[in-house]
Design brief:
Layout: H1 6-12, E1 20-33, E2 36-42, E3 49-54, H2 61-65, E4 72-81, E5 89-100, H3 115-119, H4 122-125, H5 129-151, E6 155-156, E7 162-163, E8 175-176, H6 181-187, E9 201-203, H7 208-218, E10 220-228, E11 241-250, H8 254-275, H9 277-286, H10 291-300, E12 304-307, H11 308-316, H12 334-345, E13 349-355, E14 371-379, E15 383-390, H13 395-404, H14 413-420, E16 426-432, H15 433-441
Parallel strand pairs: 3-5, 6-10, 12-13
Antiparallel strand pairs: 1-2, 1-4, 2-3, 4-5, 7-9, 8-9, 10-11, 11-16, 13-14, 14-15, 15-16
The protein binds 4-amino-1,4-dioxobutan-2-aminium adenosine-5'-monophosphate and magnesium ion.
């Protein structure tokens, strides 16, 4: 008999009323009350299905009821509608095959664990409700992003993971080498000529620079892939390996870029709210009781657009509160970002026109000579969700800035070609995908939106 998946069954169970069907999954609970038992069977759908097991009907009744939580079964039985009960239907088992027993040390036998404990069992934790909800939403949000850009004629490009350039210039790269480090340490000398690529290379911190070359071929592109940062930031919002989604648009200025960002965020939220109702209700109940109200508020209201200089004035008015002092020119800390987005406005804020000295070399210099046409999107509960800017399209200005920062023109010659061959006003941004998932789920630690998180001093698997 062909297996029916529980997600499909939940959508069209009425079509199966009184029919015999087959479902496979893992037991969430096995409850035995003498001659009748109940197995809550889960196959990865957010909701489980109740299997009614009657002693008189099953030859292997005793084998079934002695199974532990976590055992896998294949069940055939009749679907019975139960309009009075909490669940709209149940399956009355005719045969049950025990596919795989589960050892008694299976950690999810106990109903509730702390998220800290669950982090120590990354291989198992996806089987519980919290991670089922979070990772379904992660998948649906990724799909929504592809759908959004695909509907708008963007080309999805794959930029290299190994690179010889530090896009953000922050020196936070993981070096990639085939050199024998122990032997080199003994010889006291590093010879990059002998390394795999004949030069020093690292894992990418952003696909942007390579992507810009493709944007100048297609007009509108986006990348969406793994990104690596060797930042020594042990916070709830930083991971060493994370996913970034980076759109890049030719013939587009900063205002048009922010329009795209706002439209994209609202689109993804709406899509997740439609597709993942059960998951969001669960998260709203157990993780963050303000979640659904907050998401609804975001799709219904305009984001704020505020100049960095104005933000500094707002922050300077606040006395005796911040750990890090504020004055024009400083890079904002998360306490400042969160004050602006959470307390002053209570909604997402684009902070724009930052001092050029705290931003990357490729950002377009404003006429004031002090600021660049950058915009970060700050959101309540997270802080910076997106970093973006108009790009410096004027070759002379760009190379002058590179010189000031000590970047070698020769190393970036391939990138500078875009400015020599048909340059144009263009802009792009990078969305931290894990931070988006935190925002969509109310989960407050990045370690719980990546199944195998990589953070300073910590890696499992
Ligand atoms: O602001 P960032 O550094 O911007 C760039 O890398 C640009 N090249 C992107 C572009 O314009 N194409 O990073 C973009 C976003 C941040 O806003 C943040 O959400 C996320 O990436 N991010 C991190 N997320 C998790 N862990 C980290 N260590 C992160 N560092 C940045
Ligand atoms: Mg940034």
């Amino acid at each position: 008999m062909k297996r029916v998946e529980i997600r499909d069954l939940l959508k069209s169970y009425k079509d199966y009323a009184d029919k015999t069907i087959s479902v496979c999954g893992w037991a969430r609970t096995v409850r035995d009350s003498k001659n009748i038992a109940f197995v809550e069977l889960n196959d990865g759908a957010f909701k489980s299905v109740q299997i009614v097991v009657e002693k008189g009907k099953l030859k292997n009744y005793d084998e079934v009821i002695k199974q532990n939580v976590g055992a896998s079964f294949c069940v055939s039985g009749k679907l019975i509608l139960t309009p009075q009960a909490q669940q709209p239907f149940e399956i009355n088992a005719e045969t049950i095959e025990v596919l795989g027993e589960c050892d008694t040390d299976y950690p999810l036998q106990k109903k509730r664990h702390t998220v800290e404990f669950l982090r120590t069992i990354p291989t198992i934790r996806a089987r519980g409700n919290l991670f089922n909800a979070v990772f379904r939403i992660r998948s649906v949000a990724a799909f929504a992003i592809h759908k959004f850009f695909n509907e708008r004629n963007f080309v999805y490009v794959h930029t290299p993971i190994i690179t010889s350039n530090d896009c953000e210039g922050a020196g936070e790269m993981f070096q990639v080498t085939t050199l024998d480090l122990e032997r080199m340490a003994k010889s006291g000398k590093v010879d990059y000529d002998k390394d795999f690529f004949g030069k020093k290379v690292a894992l990418t911190v952003s696909g942007q620079l390579h992507e810009e070359c493709l944007t100048h071929a297609f007009g509108k592109t986006y990348t969406f892939g793994p990104t690596f940062r060797a930042e020594n930031s042990n916070t709830s919002r930083h991971a060493a390996e994370f996913w970034m989604m980076e759109p890049e648009i030719c013939f587009c200025d900063l205002d048009e870029l922010m329009d795209n960002e706002e439209e994209m965020i609202k689109y993804v939220i709406r899509y997740v709210m439609t597709e993942c109702k059960d998951e969001l209700e669960f998260l709203n109940k157990f993780v963050d009781t303000g979640l659904i109200a907050r998401l609804t508020n975001i799709v219904e209201n305009d984001f704020v657009r505020l100049d960095y200089t104005e933000a500094i004035k707002l922050l300077e008015k606040v006395k005796d509160r911040f750990t890090f002092p504020v004055k024009w020119g400083v890079d904002l800390q998360s306490e400042h970002e969160r004050y602006i987005t959470e307390e002053v406005y209570g909604k997402p804020v684009f902070l724009k026109n930052y001092p050029k000295d705290i931003k990357a070399f490729y950002m377009r210099q404003n006429d004031d000579g002090k600021t660049v046409a950058a915009a970060d999107l700050l959101v309540p509960g997270i802080g910076e969700l997106i970093g973006g800017s108009q790009r410096e399209e004027r070759l002379d200005k760009l190379t002058a800035r590179m010189q000031e920062l000590g970047l070698s023109e020769k190393d970036y010659a391939w990138y500078l070609d875009t400015r020599r061959y048909g340059t144009n006003v263009h802009s792009g941004y990078g969305l931290g995908f894990e931070r988006l998932i935190m925002y969509l789920t109310g989960v407050s630690n990045i370690r719980d939106v990546e199944i195998f998180p990589r953070t300073v001093g910590s890696i499992i698997g």
